[in-house]
Amino acid sequence: MNFRFAVISDPHIAISQTIRNIPNRFHLVEVSIPALELVLKHIEQLDLDFLLLPGDLTQDGEPENHHWLRQRLEALPFPVYVVPGNHDVPTPFPTASSIGLKDFPNYYSPFGYYNPQQLYYTCEVLPGIQLIGLNSNLFDGEGKQLGCLDEEQLIWLEKTLSEVKEQFVIVMIHHNVIEHLPGQSDHVLGRRYMLDNAPMVLQLLEKYGVKLIFTGHLHIQDIAYHQGIYEITTGSLVSYPHPYRIIDINYQRQKQQEVKVKSYRVNSVPGWENLPEMSRQWLSDRSYPFMMKLLTTPPLNLSVEEADPLTPKLRNFWADMAAGDGLFDFPEFPPLVRRYFHQFSAVNREGKPHLIDNQTTLVI
């Protein structure tokens, strides 16, 4: 059986009256609706079996934006499945400007949430194909938002995995479960994109033979691998390079599966006719604080005086990371710093280019 689906991640939908002018904001919510409309127009022509949206559906959880998106998704000719991102449920309880965590299933009941009392779900999307949608948003006793699966969800996950172990299982979750950046789990800038209890979740997925995870959150195009599991994270529709993916799977029970990944980009919307160039410049213009923090925190720990002259060379570093398949070498940098940034390159264990982040075929 062959089946096809699309992945659109982190669209950060913002209708015009909700857009706020936040200094140094990295993502262009101004293009969220026209970009989404262009993508939906394209994928409606592709005979899809379903669409996945792994979180950050809205700018910051505004009821108006959730309502707009629900109505738009309901008009599509194929099933849609979503999970909440950190921006969708920024507070545990509703406020004047955002929905609360427990409100999310009520907005998206047609898109996986058949049980309005539960923030995670499973469903057979096609015969023999099981989707598990997880909630990676948790709040501690002080109301701080965490990326974590609580104990109740972990128990449910193991029970569910044991019940569907004969199926081909696809997992969708907002936070990263496998590292997509060197030392991501331990770095001050990277760990907030990781699931806090990722090792525990990975152990469960390995135990029950899950091979494929779809995530968002990090706003980069990247495919990571760990112990037989591939995690495909898709960049944000409102950040350079404005990507989305089409996945084709040749499913044969009790055999290896062929997963074809093809990525597309939104290149123009009204008012942003050269969108990639403009959004790349947008990221570059806001790169200085981010790059200074990367240079002056562990593991590099450079002084401000050492770091400052290096930042102009790194203006486009994150944009190149976001595009996927980046190859990085800064020969003018001190050897330690040069080696550090080389780690971010899309290379295999032999140090040769391994360009799989955008277009590839995986055998799982």
TrEMBL record:
SUPFAM superfamilies, per the entry: Metallo-dependent phosphatases
Keyword terms, alphabetized: Hydrolase, Iron, Metal-binding
Boundaries of every Calcineurin-like phosphoesterase domain copy: 3-220
The keyword Transit peptide is assigned to this record: no
Keyword Iron (UniProt): yes
UniProt GO molecular function: hydrolase activity; metal ion binding
Gene3D superfamilies in the cross-refs: 3.60.21.10
Pfam families: Metallophos
Similarity field: Belongs to the cyclic nucleotide phosphodiesterase class-III family.
Name this protein carries in UniProt: Metallophosphoesterase
